[in-house]
Design a protein that fits this description.
Elements lengths: L1 H26 L7 H19 L2 H24 L5 H19 L25 H5 L4 H19 L1 H11 L1 H6 L4 H27 L11 H11 L4 H21 L13 H12 L2 H10 L4 H4 L15
Helix pairs in contact: 1-6, 1-9, 1-10, 1-11, 2-3, 2-4, 2-9, 2-10, 3-4, 3-9, 6-7, 10-11, 10-12, 11-12
Amino acid sequence: MEATLASIVAAASALVYAVVGETIAEKAGVINLSLDGSIMLSAMAGFATAFTTGSVLLGFVAGAGVSMAVALLIAFASIELRLNQIAVGFVLTLLCTDLASFLGDPYVGQRFAGVPPLAIPGLADIPWLGPIFFKHNLSVYGSFLAVALAYFFIFRSRRGLELQGVGERPEAAHARGIRVNLLRYVYTVVGGALVGIAGASYSLDVRLGWRDGLTTNYGWIALAIVIFGGWHPVRAAGGAYLFGALSVLALKLQPHLPDLAQILPMTPFALMIFALLLVSQDWSRRLGDRYPRWRRLLSGDPPTAIGTAFWRD
């Protein structure tokens, strides 16, 4: 049981980075629809860099840098060129996917050690909790940190309030002297960096190695989790762990259901969408009304100005 739960935590770590990053960007009012392509291109760039240089750290830096560049393009197209964020993101998804396939061809089938394991002394020896949470590696531990920092930054800091204001009421934020478009640039790029780390995590840890289509559809799943997670980093992370659980379950069932071996890997995607659909906005709102202290965690309204451009004139 402990080993299964530990494998779920490890399998979901990359998706956690992606959903937290997209949550930050969308909280600022920018939809990064390029997620599926960004994750794949970052996975390729991360593995190629790590394989070439022998440095896992440089692999993660390369993955983050590639995705940051894509996010910057989306922010520039929305803010400066006033183009539709959805259309630009979709085009970049296709472009990044094709680039990953073309540029990554020399690295298909190559082997690399990946992120080394690093059990946390003392914590790893805690009964039950230790093996589940503290016998992983820095990539997995970083996903825990990303969730915690995102939550406290968004909901417990002044800068976080400014971030929410930019995504909810950009006109009011501008009237208070907040540089709306500058913050949108910053948070879109920060979110893109986390998405890039997610891509590098897939090729350097979760699904070690590179091959064409390595992360196909994981970006769309991340977008769905952000929406039905109510634009809340903790709820979104919970959705990522649910998807990780479904993926591990499908993997463990394959030897017992050989006739369904081709179908089982696809079932987590369908089951995840179905599970998230059950978490409707009305359901979460009623729970929030019943338990006021938990309203912020349970509420799920989208940022009011999401997907819209702000012009000072």
